[in-house]
Amino acid sequence: MVLWSLVLGALLVVIVGYVCLPGILRQRRPQEPPLDKGTVPWLGHAIAFRRNTFEFLKCMWTKHGDVFTVQLGGQYFTFVMDPLSFGPILKDAKRKLDFSQYARGLVLKVFGYRAINGNNQMIHSASTKHLMGNGLEDLNKVMLDSLSLIMLGPKGRSLDASCWREDGLFHFCYDILFKAGYLSLFGYTKDKEQDLLQAEELFTQFRKFDLLFPRFVYSLLGPREWLEVGRLQHLFYKMLSVKHNQEKDGISNWICYMLRFLREQGAAPDMQDKFNFVMLWASQGNTGPTSFWALFFLLKHPEAMRAVREEATQVLGKARLEAGQSFPFQLSALQCTPVLDSVMEETLRLRAAPALFRVVHEDYILKMASGKEYRLRHGDIVGLFPYLSVHMDPDIHPEPTAFKYNRFLNPNGTRKVDFHKAGKKIHHYTMPWGSGVSICPGRFLALSEIKLFVLLMVTYFDIELVDPDTPMPPVDPQRWGFGTIQPTHDVRFRYRLQPTE
Ligand code: HEM
Questions:
Q1: pLDDT of 201-252, one tens digit each?
Q2: Which of 53, 243, 444, 488 has a CA that sits 20 to 30 A from residue 412's CA?
Q3: Angle at the Cα of 194 (from 285 to 291), degrees rounded to 5?
Q4: Where does heme bind (predicted)?
Q5: What 3-state DSSP class applies to 423?
Q6: What does the alpha-carbon distance between residue 393 and residue 399 come to, in Å, rounded to a whole number?
Q7: Can you tell me the distance from the alpha carbon of 278 to that of 300, in angstroms, rounded to the nearest whole number?
Q8: Which domains does the chain have, with CATH numbers?
Q9: Contact call for residues 84 and 402 (beta carbons, < 8 A)
Q10: How far is the CA of 243 from the centre of ligand 1 (A)?
Q11: What is the distance between the alpha carbons of residues 98 and 92, in angstroms, rounded to a whole number?
Q12: Distance between CA 296 and CA 466 in Å, rounded?
């Protein structure tokens, strides 16, 4: 017994030593950024980082300056906080900083999808063909039909539609955007009523997964939550399976293109199902929350709401929606809305907070705009968190926490693109979509669908907060780094279709 305890104890010491020793031994070498390993072996600062990425990085930035390396769960991350120095990291012509290695690990862990070679290029070429230009125009039509179906029902406007209804604004926006986005991209069957029910069920399950997602990524789930995540993953594989797809019409060209590519590369059907889950997540996880913030900011800023409504009347004319009708909407109007465009940019500046990562493939010299050079080690990860270093920089965006609907408008009403830092024009003045090789390929579709939804809401509906003095809900600190952040709680609002005279 004593012998066994000794053997086990020794084994434990060897394992802990093996895992922690590289961290304990690691020292800052000449020309490397300041190194902060934290006090806990191996874990380093992982707990503080995961609890609140924004506050943690703010604190490290104050302590170490524009570049620093921190230990997070046995891995070393170098954060670069000076946006004037982002260019070489994002362009990285010599391909020493790799996005796909990091992304591959993440999608395998979270969605069970083992990325094939050329995955990233395949997604981006499918998106250039089908989520931009003519492909986007076709999808906008489908999206308008989907929004009409979901917001008005299969028979168009009903007679009792003008009575007030109450809901949580976050739930309302996420539910509608999710269902419209899902049906438009993943297709319909012949039975629309059944499709709506299936989309509703999918959204209920999606929200369960969504709530567990940040802690799942960081491996912080309890045993029951692990089981729940496993159940949800299998449910999504089934509900999105390519076998089911065969019964559908109108699957978007975007999805069809990518699935065809996977088949041609010999990906097994179960991998294709998992790929669909990744695409559902990427395409639906941010649009609903962003629409919520856009509408909420408008409801809290009447001057912004007036300006958007005025613009909507100018481009769409006086709106009327008769019984049995679906929305009569000129999609070309989406190209003529500088005020709403500015509202969208401002909403994303305030609420989109992705963290961008690149794995250092070979030892790398990071050249800062100041002329200073840092040596980065092979195997470490470079991280950018533009929300803190760009979106909230008062030099680039005065009063950065305030919502200013016309921040991105020139005095003559055109789009403002001139922003400065330390007297220099800055290229990356907001980065809600990431940048470089990993820039969101769905950004044009995302903007179109959110704008379409907001325009429908302000044009055809009366909307108001149940309590006009309701304060801004706090943001959930676990969401920093994962795209659009979410509120900790919902906000009650009421809405009705404007009565016909
Ligand atoms: C407001 C809505 C959206 C936001 C804020 C957003 C933001 C982002 C961000 C920050 C990334 C990752 C960048 C990185 O890791 O460097 C990303 C990736 C991605 N997004 Fe979006 N996105 C939105 C909507 C959409 C939509 C509607 C689609 C598709 C229809 C989409 C498809 C994708 C895909 C496929 C990727 C992965 C790209 C890759 O692996 O290279 N996104 N998005």
A1: 999 999 999 999 999 999 999 999 999 999 999 999 999 999 988 888 889 9
A2: 444
A3: 25
A4: 440
A5: coil
A6: 9
A7: 34
A8: 119-354+387-497 (1.10.630.10)
A9: no
A10: 26
A11: 9
A12: 12
| First-to-last C-alpha distance (Å) of the chain | 88
CA of 28 to the centre of ligand 1 (A): 35
Ligand 1 atom 21: residue of nearest CA: 440
Whose CA is closest to atom 35 on ligand 1? 282
At 436 the pLDDT is 92
| CA 288 remoteness from chain centre | 10
Residues 6+ apart with CB under 8 A from 405: 297, 298, 301, 303, 304, 307, 308, 339, 342, 343, 346
Lookup: tokens for 50: 């995961």
The confidence band for 37, taking pLDDT boundaries of 50, 70 and 90, is: very high
pTM of the model: 0.95
CA distance 70 to 38: 8
User: Residue 420 corresponds to which amino acid?
Assistant: H
Annotated ligand binding at 59? The verdict is no
| Average pLDDT over every residue of 304-324 | 90
